[in-house]
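Tokens in:
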């Protein structure tokens, strides 16, 4: 696929484009994608048009969004439930960012390696993830399987494959690995109200110090907590981060599940998006076709 095509597909499935659609009922990227990828859009509603554009993504350009949307649909919504399980994305851990974290009774970090990626930074990424989480797995294309088995075969890291058919196969289960947990790294992932809640839980009160010293004082207290207890509280705290309107979310089409899940939709946002998806002639999108 040419560079222009890949750039356009990358733009369509982003939170910025989704927000434009919800707020303005229009997006330049979406209108351009219709012109480029849909041969006959007449009579089709936006839900069908988005599905057809997503099919291009699936067949010709399985980018990071395709992987993230697949793992969310297959694991969070397929095996687990959004009422009992939480997903996080782009979590900064040390010098790396975790692509996807799934938390139910335990937490698993998923590092994504698409057909478009190489494995050059994988070992350093995994090392960073184990500083904050005890289970790590790599979700990769079939092209990477042999290299991953050779690289990670004797490690606690799991290996999952996104097949050509769009299914996820687990080649190697992730094993719990606690040796590298770092409370300093965990603390940096927590938000202010989150670490304050944990400090009150363990020490009964918050530190009385200057505003300048407050963050450091809180971190020092957190680091005094037993590592095992701190980790359990850390995971439980992250699990509470994302609350969605489950009934409204059920109406969101497969292709947009990941985007909507991480867009902090309110009731009115769901209403506007559903209205857009049902429209067959969307001004000014259709005028540009």
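Residues out:
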């Amino acid at each position: 696929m040419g560079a222009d095509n890949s750039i356009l597909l990358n733009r369509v499935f982003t939170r910025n484009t989704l927000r434009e659609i919800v707020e303005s009922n229009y997006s330049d990227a979406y209108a351009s994608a219709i012109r480029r990828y849909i041969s006959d859009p007449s009579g089709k509603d936006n839900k069908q048009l988005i599905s057809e554009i997503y099919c291009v993504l699936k067949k010709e350009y399985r980018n990071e969004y395709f992987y993230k949307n697949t793992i969310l649909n297959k694991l969070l919504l397929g095996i687990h439930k959004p009422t009992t399980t939480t997903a996080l994305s782009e979590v900064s851990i040390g010098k790396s960012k975790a692509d996807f974290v799934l938390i139910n009774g335990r937490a698993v970090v998923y590092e994504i390696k698409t057909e478009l990626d190489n494995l050059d930074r994988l070992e350093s990424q995994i090392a960073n993830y184990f500083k904050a989480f005890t289970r790590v797995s790599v979700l990769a294309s079939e092209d990477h399987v042999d290299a991953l088995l050779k690289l990670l075969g004797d490690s606690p890291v799991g290996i999952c494959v996104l097949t050509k058919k769009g299914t996820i196969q687990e080649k190697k289960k992730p094993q719990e690995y606690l040796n590298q947990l770092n409370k300093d790294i965990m603390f940096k992932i927590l938000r202010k109200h989150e670490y304050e809640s944990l400090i009150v839980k363990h020490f009964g009160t918050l530190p009385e110090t200057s505003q300048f010293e407050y963050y450091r004082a809180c971190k020092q207290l957190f680091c005094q907590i037993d590592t095992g207890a701190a980790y359990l509280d850390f995971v439980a705290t992250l699990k509470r981060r994302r609350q969605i309107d489950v009934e409204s979310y059920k109406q969101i089409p497969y292709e947009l599940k990941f985007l909507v899940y991480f867009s902090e939709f309110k009731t009115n946002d769901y209403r506007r998006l559903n209205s857009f998806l049902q429209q067959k002639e969307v001004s000014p999108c259709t005028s540009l076709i």
